[in-house]
Amino acid sequence: MQPAVLLLIDQQGDLATAGHSHKDQFWPWKSRNIQGRGIATPTLLLAFSKFPEQESQDISQAAERMEMSIQALKQKVCQKHKRSLRPTDLLSADLLTMIANISGCLPYMLPSKCPNNCLANKYRLITGACNNREHPRWGASNTALARWLPPAYEDGLSQPRGWDPSVRYNGVQLPLVREVTKKIIHASNEAVTEDNLYSDIIMVWGQYIDHDIAFTPQSTSRTTFLTGMECQMTCEKQNPCFPIKVTTNDTLTAGMDCLPFYRSSPACGTGDHGILFGNLSALNPRQQINGLTSFLDASTVYGSTPAIENKLRNLTSKEGLLRVNNKYYDNHLEYLPFTDQIPSPCAQDSNASEDERIECFMAGDSRSSEVTSLAAMHTLWLREHNRLARALKNINGHWTAETVYQEARKIVGALHQIITLRDYIPKIIGPDAFNLYIGLYTGYDPTMNPTVSNIFSTAAFRFGHATIQPIVRRLNAQYLDDPELPNLHLHEVFFSPWRLIKEGGLDPLLRGLLAHSAKLQVQDQLLNEELTEKLFVLSNNGSLDLASLNLQRGRDHGLPGYNDWREFCGLPKLETQTDLNTVITNHNVTEKIMELYHNPSNIDVWLGGLVEDFLPHARTGPLFACIIGKQMKALRDGDRFWWENDNVFTEAQKHELKKHSLSRVICDNTGISEVPADAFLLGKFPQDFKHCDNIPGMNLEAWQEFYQEEEICGTPKSVANGDFVYCSEFGKSTVTYSCQYGFQLQGEEQLTCTSKGWNFEAPVCIDINECENEINPPCSPSAKCINTKGSYKCLCTDPYKLAEDGRTYAETLPKDSLVSIILRTRKQVKDYESLSHQKKQTVEASLTTWGSQVLLSSSSSSPSPT
User: Is residue 116 assigned to a domain?
Assistant: First the structure.
C-alpha cells in the first residue's frame, strides 16, 4: 500500500486552522452566550464583521496552513542544523510544490481562464477577473493587495514592525499603539468641531465606498498555530495573535495586559511560503488579500463571488430582482434580508420577547450591520436596484430576468462611480490634487493596474475615521428632533439592525445625516471616545479601540513609515520637529508625536497622514490626497467597464446617468420628499433643501430596446435552472446561456444565428455534484456529503457532533488530543505515487524531520497520532 502524506497542522484541535474543509465553518460568535439574551464580546463582533465569505475563507485557510507548515519546517530544520537556513536549502522544488498542493494554496495561484464570448464584453464578471485581458487577476477578488512600496517587515519577510521589542528604529523602539491613541488621537465626545461645509452623509459614503473596494480578512483562527493558545487569553506574540499591549490600569481590558488582535490572513505564495512559487531563491514578502473586487462596481450590493451573488438574488423573479427581507417592511419599502448565519451576534431590543430576534443583515459586504447608517446606505441601494429592475422590465418586456438583472447592476455600478468621482472625491482631496493626480478622463488604459493598494486601504482611506460623529441623530419630516426617536451615542447603534427596523426605518436616520454636519478632522480632536473607548461595546464586557486597531493593522501589513510615503509622493522628507511644524499647525501635537516617536521617519503612516494640515478646499493633507488621488485614477483608468469608456453605455444613456445623484436615489427609495441638491453639502432646512420634484434624475427610456425577433432563428429555448442573454457583436446575433449557482452548463454556452437557424441546440443546466469534488471537498473528512439540487449537505460523523446552531460541527475529542488531517483525495495520492522511488525517499526523509508536524501513514489507515 503506497503511503499518503498526512499533515498534522495543529495539536490543539483548532479546526479552522487545522485544515478541515470549509464546511467545518468556524463561527466564533456562535457560542452559548448569544443564544437567547446573551451578548457577544467586541472581539467576536469584529470577528463576525471581518469574517470572510466562503472563497476568501478557503484561500485564507490554505495560506495559513501553508505558512504554519513552513514555519514548523523551518523550526525543525534550524534546530537540527543549529543555524538559520531557508527550507529550500534542504528541500526540493518537487516537495515544496507538493506542500503547496496539500495545503490547498496551489489552485489559487493559477491564472484565471477568461471566457471569450459576447457576454463577457457586455457585463463585468462578479469576481472582477478578466477586466484586463492581459492581466486577468488585476482587480479581481481574493487576490493580493497591490504594493506601491516594498513592505517594511522586521525580518524582511513577514514579521510586523513592533513585533520584537529589541528591534530599534532610528535608535528607539516604536511606541505602543495604545499609548499613541491615548496621548495623541483620543478626544472626548464633547470635543467635536463641526464641519461647516459638509453633511454627515459624506462620512457614511466614504465608509460605504471603502467597503465596495477593499476588505482584508483577518485570520480565521482564534488560537496560535504552534501552541494552540487562545488569542483572547494570551499576551504573547505568536501568529496569528499580535496583541496590543496596554498599561495595567487601562479601562479597555478586564485585567489583561493586552487587547486581542488577529493578524490579517496572508495571500497564498507570500511570506514564509513565498519560496513555493516562482524563483525559489527569492522570497516574496507577506502580502494580504483583498476579498472584494477592487473596482467601483457596487459589490456592496451584489457581492464579489458567484456564491454571495447567488445568495443575494431572487432567482424566482422574472424581473431580475434582489432578495429582500420577508418579515419586515419600512412603510411598504424593502429591508435587506437577514444573514443565514444564525444566530448572528447582532444586538437585540431589550424589550423584545425571546422569539423576536432580529438578525444581522446580509448584503454584498459582510460589514453592512456595523452601524445603522451603513445599513441604511446598503438598504438604499438594494431598493434602487429593484426599482431600476422593475422599470427596465416594464420598458423591455422581452428581456429575460438575467438581462434585466445585469442591466440594472450595470446602472447601479455606474452611479457608484459617478457619485464617488464627481461628487465625493473632489471634496476630500481638493480641486488642485484632483487635477494633479486624477484629471480628465481620456479612456481605458490597459497598462494601468486598478488593484487596490495596501497603503490606500490600510491607511489613507481610513482618514474618514476622524470624521465620525459620536452622536446619531434622527429627525422627523420637518427635519426637527423627534421626541420618540432621541439622539443615540454611536456605541448604541453598533450591530443593531433592530433599531432600523423598530425605530422608524430609514427616513429619520437619513434626515439626521443630511441635516447635520460631519465631524471636522482637527489635529487635537481625531477620534472620539465612542471609537477609542467603546468600539463594538454592547454591554460591560470589554471594548476595542479603532485607532489602535488601525495603527496595529498598518504594522501587521508591513506599511513603511510616514517619510517613506512622503518621498513616494514627491513631498519633502521631514527630519526634525521644526520640519514637522511646517506641515502640522498645532505644535502641541507635533511635540507629543516627537515625545513618542523621537524621529519623524518612525511615525506610523496613518497617524502622519491624518494630522497634516488640509490642502485648500480639501479634507485631507498632501500625503493622503496623493495616495487617494493615485488610487482613484487607477480605479477609473484601469477599469474596462468604467461608465465613460466607449461601448459601455450609449451616448444617450451616459447623458441620462449624468443627471442622477445620491439625492435622487434618496428621493426614489424613501419617504423623504425634500433633500439638498447635493447630499454631501451641508444646508439648513428648509431654505437649502429642494422638493424631490425638482431633483433631476435619469430617464430610463434611453435603455428601451426595440425588439425584433430573429426572422430566421426565432426566440431561443429557455433552460431550467438557467437563463440567457441576447448579444450583438460584429453584426452577428448571439445568445449566451448561464446557469444558476450550483448548476453547470452542458452543451454550447453561446449560440449564433446563421442562415440555417441557431448553430447549436440549446444547452441544459445540470446539477453539480459537489460531493465528487476531490480537489477541494465541500465537507470535512469527518462528515458525509449528501448532494442536493443546486447545493449539498454535510452530515457529521464521529468524533463530531452537530453544534447548537444546527449547521456546524463541534469536536468531541479531548482538547489535548492530536488532530491529524488526512488529505485522502485520489489526486493527491496519485501525485505522490507518480514520483520516482528516489524522490519518494527524499520526500519521506524530509517529512520525518517535522517530528509531530508531518507524518507518513498508509492511505488506507484511519487518522491516528503516531
Answer: no
